Amino acid sequence: MDSENPKDSVGRLPASIELQILTMLEHRERPLGAVNIHDALPDRTAASEATIGRYLRDLDRRGYTVKVGKSGRLLTEEGRERLRTLRRLTSMNTQASALVAAVEAGTAQEWVEVMEARMLLESEVAAAAALRVSDEDLREAAAILDRQEAAIAAGGTGEQENLQFHDLLVRISGKRVLGQALKLIRQGPDHSLSASAIRARVGSRRVDDHREIVRALRSRDPEQARAAMVRHISSLIQDVHDFWAGVNPRG
Q1: With 50 as the cut, is the pLDDT of residue 249 above it?
Q2: What digits encode the pLDDT tens for the residues 35-94?
Q3: What torsion do the CA atoms of 115, 121, 126, 127 make, to the nearest 10 degrees?
């Protein structure tokens, strides 16, 4: 039972300050004290030295830091994992904010048009891949999707695995020209990251679509694979419409 004086208790530690504190401790071999942490904050008006001390005690209780005598704190393994999670969440929030700005700037339709172009190209890629896929390719695809699911469960976007999956389909298909066309599309605005941000906001999961595509590949049925890819891209387009409805409900 924590016997800390109620006057010394701390409210919810802001994620931005928690991220800054844990980042300061990340590569420290010697303990860092509250005064030094406060002085190193980009905005020292965000929290007083006393408040930083209370935040550090909160991090101790949560197992993210450990106090070393009167010298200060060091980061624990749990703290390093927490830092990785905070960085993933910060990245997702940045992506979502960028997407909101794009939508408000009237570029949502451009995003949809790019996704429609992807649907034409990638449906052909999927159909061709179904005719050429090997058992080894299927095992590689399954491994990528397992990593994607784990990344999403850990609070990430799974975007790296998403790109790996779609690149694998191009390689299996042997459609080098279509692959180059898709690379050109990806050189524009970062639509793939926007898709991750949208899905994070509206609650759908691409990994389920990807597993459906893999099932079609396993059947070696080009039309089934083509249809699965069309459904996948169509669901992304629907997500942006749902997102738009939430951002601009009267639009």
Answers
A1: no
A2: 999 998 888 777 888 899 999 999 999 999 999 998 999 999 999 999 998 887 777 666
A3: 130
